[in-house]
From TrEMBL, chains A, B, C, D:
It holds the Pfam family Glyco_hydro_4C. The keyword ATP-binding does not apply. InterPro entries: GlycHydrolase_4_CS, Glyco_hydro_4, Glyco_hydro_4_C, Lactate_DH/Glyco_Ohase_4_C, NAD(P)-bd_dom_sf. This is 6-phospho-beta-glucosidase. It comes from Loigolactobacillus bifermentans DSM 20003. Residues 196-410 form the Glycosyl hydrolase family 4 C-terminal domain. The lineage of its organism: Bacteria, Bacillati, Bacillota, Bacilli, Lactobacillales. PROSITE patterns: GLYCOSYL_HYDROL_F4 (PS01324).
Length: 461, 461, 461, 461
């Protein structure tokens, strides 16, 4: 039997059981021989819990696969065939900061492509570039399957600054759409043709039926009568119908932040003031999940994981790995190099598009030009992504301000600058590239306002 | 002597005396033989006042030029050599609506490329396309010099939908920058090389000295110590210095709305709640100006006009006409077809750039690619312009919403939609292309909230 | 059972039996109910022979399908589901002229993208636009599957000037490559990943194995040791190996005309002077084929058809129709709208690329930028195609000259102009758009030099 | 008085007197203080003659300027303000090889963008990159004014591989056009507006009169009745009128090689067989010029220099230097970075276009898209240039073949490969980057056929 080693960075994540389930389900076509879960010292406890849980899942399967855990990333990566990344630099506490600091000033945090997500990119990119460096040394033939958010920006940095092409960026949002939308018009997924184009958490799609007829308007219409498949972690405010019918494209759930900015912000502020932001809620869910995972009798993915918000993320990762491994030419939606597929953006940047996945990786399907409004939004957001990737590797403060101000969720000005400054301070531990700026902020006695964040900082988090 | 006929649409404007002054000053190179001021019936009184004032200015000059006034636009256009447009559909009352309706919901109005400006475009484009149709019929060789705002979108519509290429869009903002910035670094305009690129009221420029050294950083630095030449009609909040130094470009004054959105909005809301919005202030200034113009002894442009905010607009128009007429190859900043000059935008759209002006019109100077943040902003704004031009000719409500939501000054959602709906209602008289939508809004009992606007509507304005 | 009607224009072609075979083979997934073969009066005899032969093929199959023949194209098209086009305006005699007139002056004729092919485009485009007009009227939901050459230019004209999007342009060259190349490196087609990009008869491809490793160099190497799959109708001169290794792409067989122009011309001149050009040879093969087809006992495609040069053309057509009909998402190489797939060309032009074929038609796979030499060749050839399409619909003689001179097989100048003039004269019957130019040529006593062409003309062909 | 030092590399050229004349004429605006002529040891004798002649020219002027000569390039470059390059690697003997080797096989040599010119690029680029390296060290603020041919490719290499932006590529062809064409339609240069776009020796232009009316067709028409200003060194075969009228652009003289390839080749072959190729003729002219230059009484540019073919080259260089030095904003046609001016080519490549010349260097005027045939030619030729620049720095033989075969004057195949091989052999001394390939050719006993070239080689040239 041929070796097939999977290394999962951030292996102590609560998502790991879904990943195991995905691999068990696909074992025939994707006969894993070794799984290594890697985490950092701060995650050692969770890693131990998840590692045992994962092993129990395999033990209860018909397959003899060994799951190992380690804190030595470089050793783990040795001879890997696939590396999946699902780590979170600074853990959920960092996400709490990403969300609460902006909201403490009435600005949306949003941890993917909102201001919070931009700081997540600043923290994550240096780490992922380190991982890529390790991979060049010890597993140069491996594929990197990234689902650490912001997945699009991280994938962009891996390719642009890490010069590593064997990478696929993944997301569960398109998977969800393709599973839920057919039901809205009494079809099955196989009967419909989906074409996605855009960026991670900022893509649109159109849908045709098996005869090539555009059924996008039918799905839009149905979205207002039936459940429209908004991801668990996004507030359920509907898009404005006239707008959707005009664009004749279906936005992704995260577009709510941009097309219904007012309501999304109001909802986030309400949560901020009451039950806590999403990260705080997730922390509670995670706590419950880990309690479950500790149960030595639990040997399958518990139902509660679906509340976590990332359902199908790991399943998509397994599907992608299997398609690459077995050269299966599956059509999936992934973050990959544009190559012209979205001609409104440069051919060398990362986009999220429908693509054929095979042993060669992702070959994107050309989508053609978007109409003016979508093209404009997309170009803004991609350039924001490019700006933040550059800021992440250069530590340029002026560029950071310039880029954050591009984000349509941010009203530029003194308050926004204060938010940027507080985020820099609060994440100081994970932003060595901004050390000089942060020192200057401290010297200027800039302080964080949000009490929850201050509590975290007080305990060294 | 050769005929040289100038027709000014919106001739009853308070700017007309500056236009006269500009022509008198340039008479040697631009020997006007006939000036016809055109206006609409609602502007008849102002037209009469301005017409007499204009004639007095010429009479006190060494030149024998006759100024005529008329309400018959088509007759006036006959055999024109240059047509200048400075009209305002719906007069200042419409601008009051553009500004107050958004502000009544805490959203910036901004009458150029903000939400207010988008409605100004919706009102103006059908009228300008009518004028172009007249020009095709009665003065097919004339040049159209547009300084009706939003000048970039109006110029785009003239070319894209009017299929009329002999047009120059003008603005006084670059003129002001080129006059004031040299002094900041103890130079003269002639010693510096300015390169502008972008859109009307959304352009950046870089500056080199006579030896080709980039002095952009010096000017930025000096802007924080000396008067930075912010136009009269824009609140004087400074740009954030780190941001400017990173981009190493000088934004235009209107960029404040986008780079200091918070402060500009706060200032506008304060004015809204106290002394009235800019349009209301301008109305008072205009009233005073017209009182002055009535003085039968006044035969030169009064000093007070400079408070109006559009200083050098008309002078730029005269300079442009003279350059075209005498094939002078002057370098000016104008709105014209891109032709590749700004490679981040399509070659066939209208941009505002440095250009050589000659008998052929404007030949733009190629600027090269912008960095990611500027490219992103620019592409967003240009696509917004393209969206609004299309909405103006189609009356498509979904596209209108989709386009207004692109504007970074607008937080999308129910309130923004309400603002759009109220603006449609308030401008009903000037938006025939949206008649069906407006009828539906009325049927749905949508009403305008702002009391000042309601007063205007009550009096049929 | 649902209706599934196929109409074949140029149904009297010798290729029709392969088309029948392809449909019989795929009957389960593509249950044809009606086949109508259409031809022109000059082809009535062949149509009758082929019609009977086709019916015999179905009769010897397990399926009950009726083949009808007609000269009334518009009536035939009524309610068609798929229309295939394989007609040749002016029959083989026209191809003889396309080949012999240039060769009579030592210039390559080449009936696809050489000068001969450009004239084939001029003759074919007006006819195909007529067909499209009929389809709009009587079968607006049908798909047009074109394999009339020059397939790329014809497809371009259908979309650009016919405004008909439901079209697929087909060619057998990629099919052949994908069948023969795997064997060169002891692989099967299914084990390899092919990526094609370019134009019809002017595309390159790269090949990866199932692990994503680039095996293009291995195939290139093997091409010099084993049979390299050059199409029957192309002289077997090998590519220069250093050139191929540098580009690391595999050109198509037709690239020989451009990469080994000297040898291909020498070979064509030799045939011109001895056994006759390819068209003359084909005429003999066709004669033999029709003798076979007349045999009332023949009820399957005869082996001899493979000598004809177009093997797999019809099979590719059947595969394409089946994939569209049954929404099968097959990966094929087709001529379709670029949509960005080849970013060195505009997104709205027709390219030949790997694509997913489904009920929506072709969704091309983005290839990314080509290296400078390939990009340059491609841009030249595509612009030549665009020039000839425009000349075909406008009848502009200056544009025709300008376009023909672009072709790298043509040394521009007086002789090339003479060749253009003689081709116009010789094809006068089929080039009504150039009637004025042709009249002028006749008035100037321009005459055709080649004796074989003159003989054809003398007999009214 | 401020220092203004000019260094001329290849100072021993026969063109130097024109350069002196240009500087003397412009002394008021361009007050040169020091001129240093540099050459290589093989050119020492000519350098001495020219150096004295140059000094005599200044001595007979009202200005006190010292001309020095040296073989120490690096020392000469110290503190230069402007460096002009007019050297010829391998002297005229190399050009003889560039022309005769291709012609010995019936292929055009053409020393600018024909096959000969491609080899000139291969020889020149390494040398110019060396010069740039010296300039970075000893005169980092100097401007490089290149008129060594092929000027476009050399300028491209300086920017792309030398990373040196302060460079202007010059050519006399546009100057000639702008001087001669106005007379054809009874106008003066100042009354017309010229817009050039394309590449060095491969550009087109359109012309408007002072009223903006397109007079391109008038000039085309007149070219067939009057002297059309074909450069001295190009055979006078007229363009085909219908072709020009269709494109409505005026090609440059060198376009004859591409639009009348047949006649140009025939003429070159005739010269090859009789009076010798252009290089051989030039050698004779040069000999005569140097005899004249030796005359100690000659103190002005002799009339005979105009026969040399490059008239106005040096004058253009002086005009460019003066415009940069005095920040004059002159409109000239130069090779510079595209920046979008020709949107059919990438923004970062070098083009030859109309540009404003000032202290900042060249700011190109945006031309807009070309029609399909011109776009196709241009894209082919630019990609050929990019290929040859890369081959010049990498010494890649496969890329060299691939690039040479792109040239429309070359019929690809065995003979063209033989020509490439012979050129490599004949230029071995100047092509160290191809040393391995050349060694292999020698091992394979490849030899040069042309007897004149063999004679040169026998004498070590």
């Amino acid at each position: 039997m041929q070796k097939l080693k999977i290394v999962t960075i951030g292996g102590g994540s609560s998502y790991t059981p879904e990943l195991m389930e995905g691999m068990i389900k696909r074992y025939a076509a994707f006969p894993v021989t070794e799984i290594c879960l890697v985490d950092i010292p701060d995650g050692a406890e969770k890693l131990a819990i998840v590692g045992k849980m994962a092993q129990r899942m395999w033990d209860s399967s018909p397959y003899d696969v060994k799951v190992t855990t380690t804190l030595d990333r470089r050793a783990a990566l040795k001879d890997a065939d696939f590396v999946t990344t699902q780590f979170r630099v600074g853990l959920l506490e960092a996400r709490i900061k990403d969300e609460r600091i902006p909201l403490s000033y009435g600005i949306m945090g949003q941890e993917t492509n909102g201001p919070g997500g931009l700081f997540k990119a600043l923290r994550t990119i240096p780490v992922i570039l380190d991982i890529v460096q390790d991979m060049k040394d010890v597993c140069p033939n491996a594929w990197l399957i990234n689902f650490t958010n912001p997945s699009g920006m991280v994938t962009e940095a891996i390719i642009r600054y890490g010069h590593w092409d064997k990478v696929i960026g993944l997301c569960n949002v398109p998977v969800n759409a393709m599973m839920k939308e057919p039901k809205l018009i009494d079809k099955t997924t196989g009967e419909l043709i989906f074409e996605f184009a855009g960026l991670n958490h900022f893509h649109w799609h159109r849908v045709s039926d098996a005869h090539g007829h555009d059924v996008t308007p039918d799905i839009i219409e149905a979205m207002y009568h039936k459940d429209d498949g908004i991801p668990k972690n996004i507030h359920k405010v509907p898009f404005i119908k006239e707008q959707l019918l005009d664009m004749n494209l279906i936005p992704c759930g995260y577009h709510r932040y941009y097309y219904r900015a007012e309501e999304m912000l109001a909802h986030s502020i309400e949560e901020y003031n009451t039950i806590g932001t999403r990260a705080q809620q997730v922390k509670q869910i995670e706590h419950e999940l880990f309690e479950l995972y500790k149960d030595p009798n639990l040997d399958h993915k518990p139902e509660q994981l679906s509340k976590r918000g990332g359902a199908y993320y790991s399943d998509a990762a397994c599907e992608a790995m299997m398609s690459i491994y077995s050269n299966k030419n599956t059509c999936m939606v992934v973050s990959t190099v544009n190559r012209g597929a979205v001609p409104d953006l440069p051919a060398d940047c990362v986009v999220e598009v429908s693509a054929n996945l095979s042993g060669k990786g992702a070959l994107p399907l050309a989508f053609g030009h978007l109409e003016a409004p979508e093209a404009g939004w997309l170009q803004l957001m991609k350039n924001m992504e490019l700006g933040i990737c550059k800021a992440a590797v250069t530590g340029n403060y002026g560029l950071l301000l310039n880029t954050v101000f591009m984000n349509p969720l941010v009203a530029s000005g003194a308050t926004a600058k204060q938010v940027v400054d507080e985020l820099l301070l609060a994440h100081a531990k994970y932003l060595p590239q901004f050390a000089d700026t942060i020192a200057k902020l401290k010297a200027d006695h800039v302080t964080v306002k949000d009490p929850v964040v201050n509590e975290l900082l007080a305990t060294g988090k």
